Amino acid sequence: MIDGIFLTGTDTGVGKTLVAGLLARYLKRRDVSVVTQKWVQTGCVGVSEDIETHLKIMGVNGADVAEHIAMISPYILTYPASPHLAAERDKKTIEPSKIIKAYKALSAKFEHVVVEGAGGWLVPISRKATCADVVKEMLLPVLIVAENRLGAINHTLLTIESVRSKGLNVLGVVFNRISGDGDEHLLEDNKRIVSEITGVNVLGELAFSADMDELVNSFSGIGDKYIDLVSKK
């Protein structure tokens, strides 16, 4: 079984935090020792808001991971912007070596590390490098979260192509509905055409809901496919 995954999105606000939390919850309930990680959190003071959401979904108390928090959230920046700009505003430098060291420390203590990226795949962490460059250095497999809507095909294909151009494995795609509206025929075809064109595993679709129990149930099939894939690696 691979020891970690990097979750990226086709854009910001597509549901990475929700999917990361649900994936960690799924693994935890199957007795996998799992932790989530957010390399760069912007627009935040103190504890990473996304990590707090992961923990809430997982049913884990923050005190239970307090000793690991510096590794779980290597960079917390106050300005709500792309990591490179937020770091500049906070007069900090995002060092890939610090991120890699934190990941390795967590992977030595947990069976599986679920990393949630910041924004989309090519978000910059400096004026010269992107988050994708760090993922490439670590050779992490990638799970793509795509908002299922009109336009999802192009955004998802571009993300898959970019990930593959760095020689990385796209483990799969999870489609997410962030509203209850939409043309059902179109939304169903989005999943089918992405799979047919790229050969990438579409693990499923997370239904639109404000109810956590419904979301957990909706994620169950996605989780089953995920664990089957990572167990073969």
3D architecture notes:
This protein has 233 residues and is an alpha/beta fold. The chain has a single domain (4-231), classed as P-loop containing nucleotide triphosphate hydrolases (Rossmann fold, 3-Layer(aba) Sandwich), CATH 3.40.50.300. It is 45% helix and 18% strand. The protein has nine helices and eight strands. It has helices at 16-28, 49-58, 69-72, 83-89, 96-109, 131-138, 152-165, 184-198, 212-231; strands at residues 4-9, 34-38, 40-41, 75-76, 112-120, 142-147, 170-176, 202-206. The strands form two sheets. Strands 2-5-1-6-7-8 form a six-stranded parallel β-sheet, sandwiched between helices. A two-stranded parallel ribbon has the order 3-4. Strand 6, helix 7 (152-165) and strand 7 (170-176) form a beta-alpha-beta unit. Helix 1 (16-28) runs parallel beside helix 2, helix 1 packs across helix 9 (212-231) and helix 7 runs parallel beside helix 8 (184-198). The longest helix is centred in the last third of the chain and has 20 residues, at 212-231. It is globular and about 50 Å long. The protein starts with a strand and ends with a helix. The mean pLDDT is 96.
